[in-house]
Design brief:
Shape: globular
Radius of gyration: 17 Å
Structural class: alpha/beta
Number of helices: 9
Order of helices and strands: EHHHHEHEHEEHEHHEE
Length: about 240
């Protein structure tokens, strides 16, 4: 299958040209009820650029894999509004994340959010999705201690869960060339080329790459939790589309 690739420069102007502008999400970041830890992470995670690149819009149905307590869940909830819905799937084995997710959904502040704790790699949504979302966790699907996952099957299931024309958004940490499963587990990184290869094999078309989290200072050799690079890793954003036909 031919792959269409449109490279984004990573600037706000480039992102706005193909969809929503990051400035449209500024009010979400200014919400006084956002946890202090989330606000502190904004400078490194660039949430406005991320939401804009993924094309999040009012009324969307979003499937978020592995919310991890809700950094993006809170923003997605506000961005899609009451006419949209966020269906989260958490790895049942990540107890801390499950508890944090439960705290979020039980707060009563996010009526358009539902989160289920399922076997790692499960794909199950009650209605077709406009957007499937995986940020900084695709590489975890390769780490057997979290649960053995057939990523080819996972990607095919995501394909089936999306509406025709729907978006599959993946953001992760770049890895050195040739990184194998052992290297992924050690570094918590995965090569962009591997992700593209696997996802397009499931029938998706790669339509855009966002470079807004590219950091040339990171040589990809250290685990992402190493204090020398933590929060400042070189990351890529990929937008895949399920063809309409």
């Amino acid at each position: 299958m031919a792959v269409l690739l449109i490279i984004a420069t990573g600037s706000i102007g480039a992102l706005a040209a193909g969809g929503p502008s990051p400035s449209q999400y500024t009010r979400l970041l200014a919400d006084k009820e956002r946890p202090a830890d989330d606000v502190a992470a904004d400078a490194n995670r660039k949430p406005a650029e991320t939401l804009a690149f993924a094309g999040v819009k009012r009324g969307m149905v979003v499937g978020e894999f592995f919310p991890g307590g809700g950094y993006f869940t809170r923003l997605l909830s506000k961005a899609v509004g009451p006419g949209g819905h966020i269906y989260g799937i958490e790895n049942a084995g990540w107890k801390g994340a499950v508890e944090a997710d439960q705290k979020l959904t039980s707060s009563g502040k996010f009526g358009n959010v539902s989160i289920d704790a399922l076997t790692f790699g499960a794909v199950r949504f009650p209605e077709p999705l406009d957007l499937a979302w995986v940020t900084q966790n695709y590489h975890d699907l390769k780490i057997a201690k979290f649960g053995v996952v057939d990523t080819d099957k996972f990607n095919r299931a995501v394909f089936a869960a999306l509406k025709p024309g729907g978006t599959y958004f993946i953001l992760d940490h770049e890895a050195p060339p040739g990184t194998d499963a052992a290297g992924i587990e050690k570094l918590h990184r995965i090569e962009k080329a591997q992700v593209i290869r696997e996802v397009t094999a499931a029938g998706f078309q790669l339509v855009e790459e966002g470079k807004f989290l590219n950091r040339p200072s990171d040589d990809h050799s250290l685990p992402i939790f190493d204090k020398a690079v933590q929060g400042q890793t070189d990351q890529y954003a990929l937008k895949f589309i399920k063809p309409k036909k």
